[in-house]
Specification:
Lipocalin; ten-stranded antiparallel barrel; 27% strand; single chain; alpha+beta; 10 strands
């Protein structure tokens, strides 16, 4: 089942970090399975065992939405589809899990031959824009829907939704780039790619002197924010951006250097015409007074520099 890979590390790790210590037994009670044990069973293909563990956790902690989600997934993988469908629907009552839980429910309907219900529930899920086109079209659970006239429409609808979704707000920055200062000097190269089923954007920067840095970026479905963590040899940046304007993101957060100094940083990334991207960095000691630290024009790799129409310094 290709969909097995869709239980992403994000779900498992955030679940473990959020609830890793709560599944503990009270003195004198039978041993309560821990999140780590349930996850280990799930990742090891012991789906029946994992389902029972997550069930016990859900019974003790009914507000643990991700436990319901993982229980449904384990039942699904174990082939206990009727039970899985009930749990998928329960998981869908938790807002942050609704899109993927509905997607899983649609898969059950498709596997059971309930085509109309499968399309109805799938539409609700896909309209959230969190499912990728690759996931949708390669998922063997949904194979029975492919010959239905509604299938191609669903795929096209998802493409449009994804293009306009906050979860895709960083896609304009994905690519291989030569990065120039406004006066046309090559500052470095940058490579940004979608990874892990398009759930992350991985950035790899190398400046003209050979210094390197990387960032890891993801969209938080609960908060509606993009998160970026940048690391290089001298510092670490932890920032967030709210995707309110198509073709533009403004990250802001704290910069930590090796000496222990902390200041505020702001990074504007804006889509330009002709396939270019503009980036401007600012710094502030207190988040009140800002000064521009760098400006870059991103050109698709191999294309000559074009500085026409770039924003004035500080405009972002």
């Amino acid at each position: 089942m290709k969909r097995a890979a869709v239980v992403s590390a994000l779900v498992v790790m955030s679940f473990a970090s959020a609830f890793g210590s709560f599944a503990q037994s009270e003195p004198g009670q039978a041993a309560m399975p821990t999140i780590e044990q349930a996850n280990t069973a799930l990742q090891g293909g012991e789906f029946e065992k994992a389902a029972e563990m997550f069930k016990q956790i859900c019974e003790k902690y009914p507000q643990a939405g991700q436990a319901w989600f993982m229980q449904g997934y384990a039942l699904h993988m174990a082939g206990r589809l009727d039970e899985a469908l009930t749990i998928h629907k329960k998981a869908a009552t938790f807002p942050g899990l609704r899109p993927q839980a509905l997607y899983n429910a649609a898969c059950v309907h498709a596997l059971q031959g309930d085509t109309d219900e499968a399309f109805d529930v799938l539409r609700l899920s896909l309209d959230e824009g969190q499912t990728t086109v690759q996931q949708l079209t390669s998922d063997t659970d949904l194979s029975s829907l492919h010959e239905d006239p509604r299938w191609d429409k669903a795929v096209e609808r998802l493409k449009v939704t994804r293009a306009n979704s906050p979860a895709s707000a960083m896609n304009f920055w994905v690519g291989e780039w030569d990065c120039y200062t406004p006066d046309g000097k090559l500052s470095g190269t940058n490579h940004l790619e979608l990874v892990n089923n398009d759930l992350f954007v991985h950035e790899q920067w190398k400046d003209a002197q050979g210094h390197e840095g990387q960032s890891f970026n993801f969209y938080d479905i609960k908060t509606g924010l993009w998160h970026q963590t940048w690391v290089d040899s001298s510092r670490q940046l932890v920032m967030t951006a709210e995707p309110t304007t198509p073709g533009e993101l403004v990250f802001e957060g704290e910069n930590f250097d090796r000496a222990g100094n902390i200041d505020r940083r702001r990074i504007l990334v804006r889509k330009l015409d002709d396939g270019r991207v503009y980036q401007e960095g600012k710094a502030s000691p207190d988040g009140k007074e800002w000064h521009v630290t760098y400006r870059l024009i991103y050109m698709p790799k191999g294309e000559p520099f074009n500085g026409e129409g770039i924003p004035a310094s500080g405009e972002g």
